[in-house]
Design a protein that fits this description.
- This protein is α+β, with helices and mostly antiparallel strands.
- It folds into 2 domains: about 170 residues, Creatine Amidinohydrolase, Chain A, domain 1, CATH 3.40.350; about 270 residues, Alpha-Beta Complex (Creatine Amidinohydrolase).
- A 5-stranded mixed sheet has the order 6-5-4-1-7, sandwiched between helices.
- The relative contact order is 0.10.
């Protein structure tokens, strides 16, 4: 019989536990191999890098940040790949603040750090520290799975990144000395965006301790970087328009795949997979985990298991967004009749949600409060629930801040800012976010919904198991609002006609 017991513990070995993933490696290391692998390479192609269209915009963003922190050294890391399992990582995505200030998106420059050095005139000089292309005569070239050219492809040179971003560049090895310069009591204060890169946080902490630096304001820097994105510039709006257009094309593919979804035991995965494939083909990725919730699953607000069937006669709630290469993402929800036609009950609930969305969009204009958008949607939701006899009080009484009974069927907020993160500007102060005054250039969602779970005994049986959300991405303009996602049908008649055309192909 084979012995399957665990061997008794032996004497500890000198090899650290964290390095044992290399035990599987059969990498050659003989002198003859090293000579052979580092020779015989032709010249690399000449650089074709040109200045990014984002470069002038990112310079203006850095200037705005600089004005808020005169005399301080500001450290904005890109971050590092996050472990998925053992020694395999998730696909790298730089921190939103780093992408916003540099224009670098997709999977570029893990470990890079943007530093804004204070100048005597109160401004800052930006330097981007990164790991440059290694020579082919180095061990990194062929032996380093995290950085080596054989493993992850060639890295750009420092000069190429400088040309692309318009930012001075320096080797990552120079970061510690650059951060430590003139730091100490009465000297330069170093502020870092906390929690992005533990290694950078540790370096900053060591510098502060060694030089007895005083009180820090790291949270203030994170807050300012978040608030810097509340109003989008023209480049950001253009990227969001692209993200929305690409997302709309993804929804079209979802509709054409509904027959396949119906035929599959896990049809929700078919819906999710179709959109994910589209996002990877046409953009960088999805901006967040897609919600593909059919039937009663649509009453779970963040249903991401997506492992259920999709059946004729049901609604399928699809909440999805494409993240384009610049990392700006759309966030759109449509609730679709699986077989292309709403039932009378589905249409009644859907129309109530659409009316709430329309009411919210109608009030958007510069000068109102962000919270006013939610209030407009809730007036419609409360009124409709009262009409249906579902509230034990009047709609007016339910809307009282100390009552809010209508929120049983819509517990989430109506809007959130949108941009580099799906929930953008999340570290902004409440007085600038929830209680903030709308300004032209702000982009946020409008996404009311109604959710009736299968076991809700306070609603008619015909309502149970129906969830509806309609979500659009809205730009505040000088005199009102533009629904950036209006090209994706919303009216129930338009939805049915749109689906019929796609399903007939």
């Amino acid at each position: 019989m084979t012995d399957t017991s665990i061997p008794a513990a032996s004497e500890p070995t000198a090899q650290p536990l964290e390095s044992r993933a290399t035990n599987r490696s059969l990498r050659p290391s003989s002198p003859r191999f090293l000579e052979f692998v580092t020779s015989g390479w032709g010249p690399r192609p000449a650089s074709t890098v040109t200045r990014s269209a984002a470069a002038d915009f990112t310079a203006a963003r850095r200037d705005r940040l600089s004005a808020a922190f005169p005399g301080a050294r500001l450290v904005v890391p890109a971050g590092r790949p996050q472990v998925r399992s053992n020694d395999t990582d998730f696909r790298f995505r730089p921190h939103a603040a780093f992408a916003h200030l540099t224009g670098l998106g997709t999977e570029r420059e893990p470990e890079a750090v943007l530093v804004l050095h204070p100048q005597e005139d109160g401004s800052h000089r930006a330097v981007l520290h990164l790991r440059p292309l290694a020579g082919r005569d180095t061990e990194e070239f062929f032996a380093d799975p995290a950085h080596g050219e054989f493993w992850v492809g060639p890295r750009p040179t420092l000069a190429e990144v400088a040309e692309l971003t318009g930012i001075d560049t320096a080797h990552l090895d120079e970061l510690r000395d650059a951060l430590a310069k003139d730091v100490g009591p009465g000297g330069v204060q170093v502020l870092v965006v906390p929690g992005v890169d533990e290694a950078v946080d540790a370096v900053v902490a060591q510098i502060r301790a060694a030089q007895e630096a005083g009180e820090t304001r790291d949270e203030a820097l994170a807050e300012a970087l978040s608030e810097l994105r509340l109003v989008k510039d023209d480049h950001e709006v253009a990227e969001l328009r692209e993200a929305v257009a690409t997302t709309i094309a993804g929804f079209e593919k979802v509709v054409t795949a509904l027959p396949e979804a119906v035929a599959h035991r896990r049809g929700e995965r078919v819906v999710e997979g179709v959109f994910l494939g589209h996002a990877r083909q046409e953009g960088n990725d999805v901006g967040y985990t897609t919600i593909a919730a059919a039937g009663p699953h649509a009453a779970t607000l963040h249903w991401t298991d997506n492992d259920g069937p999709v059946r004729p006669g049901q609604l399928v709630l699809v909440d999805a967004g494409v993240e384009v290469d610049s990392l700006y993402t759309a966030d759109i929800t449509r609730t679709l009749p699986v077989d292309g036609v709403f039932t009378p009950v589905q249409r009644r609930i859907y129309q109530a949600v659409l009316d709430a969305a329309d009411a919210a969009i109608a009030v958007i204009r510069p000068g109102i409060l962000f919270r006013d958008v939610h209030a407009a949607a809730m007036e419609v939701i409360a009124a409709r629930l009262a009409e249906w006899g579902l509230l034990p009080v009047s709609a007016a009484e339910s809307l009282d801040v100390d009552v809010q009974l209508h929120r049983r069927w819509m517990v989430h907020g109506t809007s959130h800012h949108l941009g580099l993160d799906v929930h953008d500007c999340a570290q902004a102060r409440a007085e600038l976010y929830l209680d903030g005054v709308l300004e032209p250039g702000m982009v946020f969602t409008v996404e009311p919904g109604l959710y009736f779970t299968p076991d809700d005994l306070l609603v008619p049986a015909e309502y149970r198991g129906i969830g509806v959300r309609i979500e659009d991405d809205v730009l505040v303009t000088a005199d009102g609002a533009e629904n950036l996602s209006a090209a994706l049908p919303r009216d129930p008649d338009a939805v049915e006609a749109w689906m019929a055309g796609l399903l007939a192909r």
